Amino acid sequence: MDFPVNAKIFLNDDELVAELPGNVRLSHKDAVCLADLLWSKGVTVSEVVMLDWHEDASRAPLNGQKIAIYQRLRLLEQSED
User: Fold this and answer.
1) Using an 8 Å Cβ cutoff, are 71 and 34 in contact?
2) 18 SS3 class
3) pLDDT computed for residue 22 by the predictor
4) What distance in Å separates the CA atoms of residue 65 and residue 10, rounded to the nearest whole number?
5) What pLDDT band is residue 5 in, cutting at 50, 70 and 90?
6) Which of 12, 17, 41, 47 would bridge with 6, disulfide CB 3.0–4.6 Å?
């Protein structure tokens, strides 16, 4: 099943950046804070794609950052149930 991608996440220097439709950009140095910003815009875990190191090693988020974003969004989704 394909889900719409509402947020593409990558690193820009030492900051995580999320690009959303409508030329909206969110950024934060902390992965959990970025996840909270995404949630405030209505983005769910299934709507997030992160740049892979195979595509661009210098701009791909670190594994720990990816895990933190996905985990925080999952926790926020579960709290809605």
Assistant:
1) no
2) strand
3) 87
4) 10
5) low
6) 47
Query: With DSSP H G I counted as helix, E B as strand and the rest as coil, what are the percentages for the chain, rounded to 5?
Result: 40, 25, 35
Nearest to 8 by CA among 24, 72, 71, 76: 24
pLDDT band at 4 (very low <50, low <70, confident <90, very high): low
Structure tokens at 70: 């996905």
- Do residues 28 and 16 make contact, with C-beta atoms less than 8 angstroms apart? yes
Ramachandran region of residue 66, left (φ > 0), alpha (ψ -120 to 50) or beta? Answer: alpha
- Asked if 45 contacts 73 with a C-beta cutoff of 8 angstroms, the reply is yes
Q: In sequence order, which ranges of the chain are alpha helices (DSSP H)?
A: 31-40, 63-80
pTM tops 0.70, yes or no:
yes
